């Protein structure tokens, strides 16, 4: 574990107990057993640390969902989409609860911008899933379905994040699959037209240049010890600089890094860059 990862892990423990505002840099460094100087070598401020934590969670969540939508067969796609969503919420429940209870004034403009961009990225993934599952059948209803699915994700997560109820995840997912299919196949009145989406749509930073992707890859390479993930990242970086590999080889390299917790966002960006579905 790098010093930066240690700071993020220990800070999250304190944030979960005390909240963002009540937690000081001194408390974080004391828990880590490091100096303030070491902290500021990794993060310029506590705000930058908070953004990094949320960045880390949202990158993993978005890339996990995108991987499911890209790779799963239609027969199990919707089930695995919901299962991955709620499994991730449950796995990171302390952090998710922290985001839900933290007052909005604790978030700076940079954080709001990042959350907006991740939200738009997630919406694109969900729309892609709707198009795969329902095609022309739901073309007029796709945005209504998008907001319904996002509503299911948010509302049902409260059962274990807020009320801490024991949840049968399999039954929950089956129920939401049934509800979503009924909405897609039986709803006839569309409320959200393309024109409304165009009014609320804003550009996102989800498609960075090759140079930006290379920067992300190089950071991963520096952070990882020798492993198949590190070797795969080196080859993928070379492919960005001088394309020579067959698409099947590139896809295999992406598979190698997909499930590493510190490479998921890199895999997501590379899948978009190479157009791999």
From TrEMBL:
Pfam families: TetR_N. InterPro entries: Homeodomain-like_sf, HTH-type_Tx_Regulator, HTH_TetR. The keyword DNA-binding applies. It comes from the Bacteria. It comes from Sporosarcina thermotolerans. Keywords: DNA-binding. Residues 1-61 form the HTH tetR-type domain. PROSITE patterns: HTH_TETR_2 (PS50977). Residues 24-43 bind DNA. This is TetR/AcrR family transcriptional regulator. PANTHER family: ACREF/ENVCD OPERON REPRESSOR-RELATED, ACREF_ENVCD OPERON REPRESSOR-RELATED. GO terms for molecular function: DNA binding.
